Amino acid sequence: MSYPSLDTSRAAAAVAHVRNLARGQRIDPSWRVTVHFHPDRLVDDMTILRAMATDGRYRSQFETGTSNGGLSCHTGGDRWRWESRLFGGAYDDAPPAARPVYGSLNHRHRPAGGSPRFGSAHLRLNVATLARTTFCYPDSVFEPVEVGTADRCALADLADADDKEPLDDYVEAHVHGGVVLARDVEALVLDPCFRDTEVEADAHLLGVPVQWHHGFRARIDDIAAHPGYRGPDIVVAAALIAREGILDARIIGAAVREGLFDEQSLKRVWHCTARFGHPDIRP
């Protein structure tokens, strides 16, 4: 299998720029970067897992034009501008495939990964990728000044001391030089709602170990008890797509494919499910 030729000089320049601004100590080598996504979504009329298996790598939002966070991945857009500032202009004229892949530093060893707000599944990257990963806190949408690299990082302490709500308390990670499945991935970790489904079958096409976390299931009553979290309209959407009063990643994904609500609304339904859900809930 062949992979796109990536400009490693850009990656090296970006990491060096961040290292010059970073402070702190070397991170714990047991920490891992997790790259989150929804495993039942489509990319170019193909399931994302099949697309990954075909490509042999994970593609960034600059390539796919999709995102589970903000989407401004075009020249001059917010994401482009944030990257220009964070990485000293290393990617200003770079092709999409050369740009970094976003994830989070799972310094708390959470089974569902470092930032489940961005997806129920994640790729857990191996220790070798840490050397070419940069970090910031908080999320780059806030244009942070606190940055880090694997050998100079104080961001975990900052995140742990901050009083952010559970879906927003992650340390953002940027993997430079691409994420190639066979080279960089320890495991694909899925929500158990996808057991015995097409998602599980597709997962085994990636050629990496498939593991499961505790899962997120939420009662609509628990979501409705917090209308201010993502808005009353999101509670209404959640109630309409729930099955027997229950929501999980598989149910929300089916609603996305059926076009029952716009994807931004259903993204917020997922936020509610991840925030208020528990693995022991049953219909």
Automatic annotation (TrEMBL):
A Pfam family reported for this protein in Swiss-Prot or TrEMBL = DUF3626
Q: Which organism is it from?
A: Actinoplanes ianthinogenes
Which InterPro entries does this entry report, sorted A to Z? DUF3626
This protein is called DUF3626 domain-containing protein
